[in-house]
Every structure is written in C-alpha cells, then in structure tokens.
Amino acid sequence: MDDTPSTRSGRRAPERLVRVGFIPLVDMAVLVAAAEQGFAEREGIRLQLMKDVSWSNIRDRLAFRQFDVAHMLSPMPIASQLHLGSNPYCCFTPFALGRGGNAITLSLDLYREMQALAGLDGSEGALANALALKQVVERRRVAGRKPLVFAMTYPFSSHNYEFRFWLAAAGINPDTDVTMTVVPPPLTVDAMTTRAIDGFCVNAPWNMIAVEKGIGRMVATKADIWPSAPEKVLGVSPEWAEENPETLSRLVVALDAAARWCDTRENHAALADMMSDQTYLGVPSGLILRLFSGRLTIDPDGRVRHVENYLRFYGQAANFPWTSQALWIYSQMVRWGQVAHSEANLAQVKAAYRPDLYRDILAGSGTSVPLVDSRVEGLEETFIDGRSFSPDDIPAYVEGFPIRTAANAAVDE
User: Fold this and answer.
1) Which of 65, 98, 285, 407 can bridge 313 by disulfide, Cβ–Cβ 3.0-4.6 Å?
2) Phi then psi for 195, rounded to 5 degrees?
3) What's the predicted TM-score (pTM) here?
4) Exposed/middle/buried for 181, CB within 10 Å: 0-12, 13-18, 19+?
5) Which of 371, 374, 329, 362 lies closest to 95, judged by CA?
6) Cis status, amide bond into 205, omega within 30 of 0
7) Closest C-alpha to 2, from 292, 270, 259, 319
8) CA distance 176 to 294
9) DSSP readout, 241-306?
10) 231-283: per-residue pLDDT in tens?
11) How many other C-beta atoms lie within 10 A of the C-beta of residue 156?
12) What separation in angstroms does the CA of 229 have from each of 159, 195, 247, 312, 347?
C-alpha cells in the first residue's frame, strides 16, 4: 500500500458508508483501487460502488440522494451549475479522477472508404484522418446520401466536445454536415455492430473492443486532440458535503493515495485483475493491462499504436480541479450553442470546480498541490488546432473558431 500520509492522523473514526455511482469504464480505476486496495478503509470509509448504465442516470440518482458522490463526466458539474439539461441538479467537484482514455472509432466500412478516397495507408495521424473523413462527407452530400451518424455519450461530455473539436478542425460542421446522437458507453459497440451509428467517441475499453470485434477503426485519441483535457471527476452532492465535511476530506485523502497507486506501473497487473471482475468492467484483464500500457490495437488488421500517457491517474496534477479547465469546457458549451456567454454564467462555472477544497485537504501531504487555480491552457500540451486558451477572454476565443453554433437553449439528451 502507498504510504501517503493522512491529514487526519490519530485515532481512526468509526466506519462511514459512502455510496458511489459509476459507469463501467477504465477511468474509474481510482475508485476501484480506493475500495479494493484498502485506501478508503484506512480513512475509516466503506465505499459502496454502485454500477449504472448512463450518465443521465448518474445525474438523477445523485440528485435523488441514491448516491452520495459519483464518477462523473468533467462537464457535468458545470452543466448542473448552469442549469442545463432535463434535471439540472447543482453539484461540484473537489477532485479529478484522471485524464485520458477517450478515443474516436469509426466503422471499419467508413474507414476503408476514407482510405480508398484519400489514399490513406493507415499510418496517418488524427488530423489527416479527419481531413479524409471530410472528403467522404462531401462526396455523400453531393450524391444526396443521408448524413453519417456519430455517437457521443452525453451532451455535456468530454466526448461530445472532443468529437466536435476533431470534426471542426477538418472543416466538418457537426451540427449541419453529420448527425450527432447520444448512446450510453456500454452500448456503443452494439450500436455500431447493428449499423445504427457510423462512429463514436467513448472512453476505454469500448474503442478497443470494437476494433477487436472487427467492426471499428480507431482514428484519434484524446491525446491527439488535447492531452491535458480533464476526463472524469468526483461529483459531490452539496447537501451531503455540508452534512459530512469530515468524511469528504477523508475521501479525498483516500482517493489521492489510490490515484498515486494507480499511476505506478508495477501495480497495473493487480489493478487490471480487480477491474476485470463482473462487478466493474467484466472484460479480460489482459485487455485492460494493454490499455494501461497505451499499446492500442487500432485496426482489425492488427496495426498497433503506442500512445504515451494514454491513461494518467495522478502525475502532472491530474487530480487538481483546474478552474481554467472548467472555463475551457464552458467555452465549448458557448461555441456549440448550449449556453450564451455572460458574467453571471462565469461565476456559476467557477462554483463547479473547487480547487480551494483540494488545496485545503491535501496541503502538507506528500502530493504537490498547484499554487494557482488557473493558467493558459494548451502551451505545453497543445490542442489539435494549434491554438491556446486564455481563460481571461472567452468571447474572443470562441469567435476565433470558424465553425460554431448560435446559442440554443434546447439540448437533446
């Protein structure tokens, strides 16, 4: 076990039950390690991990207090604070569960069409693949064929914003050139198998499962679009946090230790075995271990690509809830017409991410805590379009995108 010191030393408190909702994805590894490897127990907490199938269920069950906290998409606390969606329950996050794991997978038939039309040999990068897709989209339009259908997992998700960012970088308008729809993560492979969709963006392990079933071709990863993008966070019910401040602090300490343990390569085999259990992912541990290593099978022909830090659970302040990253997510909501920009909305966005809580709880621990809450994003780990993001001027950033959508309050879930 990791020896990260607890900030609540001394006599152990009585065991406290914390109910945690989750979706079966590799990026909930920190929660599994906290429950299975003893980090939560060391803090006097019994974690009850409760599986669900869709992000809207996660949101609603947190609102209805069936969960105390939840594995949550990084944009969800922001959307909740902005009162977006069908049941906007205000929650917040004091802790990010890591980065990476997302990828865009297209149907094999569509990718082979791209190869034939654009002369791809399979070694091309994410942007070249998007430009090839642009040619297919244009040919279908000229021929009068129906638009391609692409799935993401939730309207307020990193998958939605990353898929759109990738498409738009190649000149494809996701609102007029193709059809975007919602499919829950565990159903994406089945949806592609039945030809209901032509591609999807989702976290691991579903992309590689589609490839290994021979139906999909991975064409871009999160690291290609923006490596620093936050992925999942710990969503917290504000009522529960107010009633249980000591338990919340202990939980963050336990998750911090678990995240460090997950980032240690020597622990990956044991972690993969834990997560392969039917209680969590129910897929072979060997596949999960390959995902941890970043060695991805991207084509059914056997082509393998190595992505450095494909999944990052602790290093480079991966658990810090950066205000600037929350504001970048907000900029994408503005870009795609989900909300209009205003000073009042900015204040709500800043209430969704709580770096102050993270800093208060972990100050003096073995974890290096950033001294500032916000920074210019995209300087060291760049965006696929080459631009950086300054949180001080969101309207100018959004205006700089040639493809964007006017504000529209209605968002289909």
Assistant:
1) 98
2) 65, 25
3) 0.93
4) middle
5) 362
6) yes
7) 259
8) 34
9) HHH-HHHHHHHHHHHHHHHHHHT-GGGHHHHHHHHHSTTTT-S-HHHHHHHHHTEEE-STT--EEE
10) 999 999 999 999 999 999 999 999 999 999 999 999 999 999 999 999 999 99
11) 27
12) 11, 30, 28, 11, 21
Q: Which two tokens stand for residue 267?
A: 């622990």
Largest CA distance in the chain: 73
Q: What is the CA radius of gyration of the chain?
A: 21
The amino acid that residue 194 corresponds to is T
Place of tokens 């569509």: 110
Q: Which amino acid is at 257?
A: A
Helix crossing, 29-36 with 268-276: angle to 10°?
90
Collapsing DSSP states into helix, strand and coil, what is residue 117?
Answer: helix
Contact 350, 323 (CB under 8 A): yes
Q: Which amino acid is at 113?
A: E
- Residue range 61-120, pLDDT digits in tens: 999 999 999 999 999 999 999 999 888 789 999 999 999 999 999 999 999 999 999 999
Helix ranges (DSSP H) in 25-125: 29-36, 39-42, 55-63, 76-81, 108-118
Quick one: tokens of 314? 């602790």
The upper half-sphere exposure of residue 182, i.e. CA atoms within 13 Å in the direction of its Cβ, equals 14
